[in-house]
Amino acid sequence: MEKIYKREDYLSKIRGFYNDTMIKVITGIRRCGKSYLLKTIIEELKDNGVNEKDIIYIELDKKEYKDITSPEQLEKLIDSLILDNDFKYLFVDEVQNVEGFEALINSYREEGRFSIFLTGSNSYLLSGELVTKLTGRYIEVEMLPLNFYEYVDMKKFMGKEVSVNIYNEFKEFIRNGGFPGSLNYERYEDKLLYTENVIKQIFEKDIKTHKKIKDTALFEVVQKFVINNFGAIISVGSIYDYLTKSENVNVDRRTIKSYIEILENAKIIYPCDLFDIKSKKVLDGEKKYYLADLSIYFALNTDNRINYGPVLENTLFSYLKSKNYSLSVGKIGNLECDFIARRGIDEYFYIQVSKSIDDKKTEEREYKPFYEIKELYPRYLFVLDLILQKNINGINNVNIVDFIYNKEDLK
Fold this sequence. Notes:
The protein has about 400 residues and is α/β, with parallel strands linked by helices. Helices cover about 40% and strands about 20% of the residues.
């Protein structure tokens, strides 16, 4: 029997709904581990006494199901696997392969004797009928590739060697990325090739067929620009200027906007809005974008040097997102606070991220936004250096590697 690494952060989000007829939708970039999350849930159900005959698992990306493309075919398949009238647990992996699946899945939910779990690699799952017919009847759990703690823990789980110096592991993690499948390879070049193939699969299966892409070459230029500028403030206008002035490309702003939305829907990038702290409003136009996994950048670029500013921001963004924090970039006049993190009702935090504060000028620059913020919510400065003073003027100085490795929360 295959041993499966348990990703507790995601299991804990969905465990309370195992026996609920509400549809559970698991989304995320291809190869981030959604199928294995389903298999872990099935293991837990069996451990809790659920009979195997009451579990229906359909993996639509498998060769045996490649011809299942219509709701009628999927219905026939599901019904052939139902042996009696007992309560059933229905798992459909990569359900977006069946166009128009929403009404069929909804009909099974309405029968009241199914707990339904769906996975998909893009946010189209939550469009059309699924949203209009199932308002309040589904929950979405969004998965990301492994964070740093999971990366090290899964290496141990697989019996792989882990450095006694956790900071060496962190540097490896930055370049290797957190796609679970890449841990099956030893050589760095093979890991990057694995990530390249993931991106190619996304393009072939999730993007290429999209009706809004009229110019594949232009789409790839936009994709490369956004990926290469992760963690920087960009806008449709700045991409337009780059394409028209630097690349001499004739392009419509609406096309650029739709291509960015396609990258978001494929879960390759995640937007982070700019939030004006004084006016309490989200600023239109400009955003930051972070990568689902850092290996995407290294796989698509020949330069493998680490630019620690955006890399550390991306690492923290992904980790906090997996912990259910909502994130935005804070603007205070001309100053920028790297993140505002929110969770629950009263959890609200201001965050700066820097490789180090080993000189006075850098320290003053990183602390300055905090002193401009009037609200008395907790403030954090995350750095890669070892911390000598944990708290300065009410600002928590935290080592980012230790924070993630120890699975900590903001307090």
